[in-house]
Amino acid sequence: MSPLISKRIPVVGLTGGIATGKSTIPVIDADVLAREVVQPGTKGLTQIVAYFGSEVLFPDGTLDRKKLGAIIFNNEVKRKKLNSIIHPAVSRAILWNVFWCWMRGEKLCVVDVPLLIEGGLWKWMGKVVVVYCSADIQLQRLMMRDNSSREDASARLNSQLPITQKVEYADIVLDNSGTLQDLEQQVRLCLVKLERTAGWSWRLSWFFPPFALVSALWTLGWRSAKRLRQRSRRPLEGI
């Protein structure tokens, strides 16, 4: 994603949970885009069939996600190959959607990406918001949502970056350990904070694009420095 675009309009990367308040600000859902980029006739689906074979298709030509998931579940090489096809296509779609938000003059937009940290997109976000709950609560919710066993749910969680590590990348953390009402209150306060942070700078970026470029380079450098500081502190934490 272009850092210039992410500074012309304040872009908020959301991960670790599902966004709320979607009627008040535009939300770009990476899960929805991931389905769109593998529709029949797309370059993404063509690449998938070329590598995995036509057996991953339904008779009508659409992608059989369950069959493809079974193929890559315990095969890291094939999983990485699939990611190398899907992730660039989703990133381009996100950029295009952010651009249209900017064209419409939106003050703020949210990019909802479950693998925001793992995929590296966090670097291009103006702010990173992580929705957090404890590992035990996360496991119980996943088992209840998917009606899955503890073993299956644990395997899915273990395939992702632990939520405690995602928190290290966050500018804002929303605690989703309580009730939905508690989370909604946090989201409202978060939106107020984000809109206040956007302030007048988004208007300046619109009318004076060089300001957006300078701000973007500063943000990218600041995030890189922040990660280096966090990594340098880790060995000391165990002493």
UniProtKB/TrEMBL annotation:
The lineage of its organism: Eukaryota, Fungi, Dikarya, Basidiomycota, Agaricomycotina. One of its GO terms (molecular function) is dephospho-CoA kinase activity. Keywords: ATP-binding, Kinase, Membrane, Nucleotide-binding, Transferase, Transmembrane, Transmembrane helix. InterPro entries: Depp_CoAkinase, P-loop_NTPase. It holds the Pfam family CoaE. The chain crosses the membrane at residues 206-225. It comes from the Eukaryota. Signal peptide: none annotated. This is Dephospho-CoA kinase-domain-containing protein. GO terms for biological process: coenzyme A biosynthetic process. Gene3D superfamilies: P-loop containing nucleotide triphosphate hydrolases.
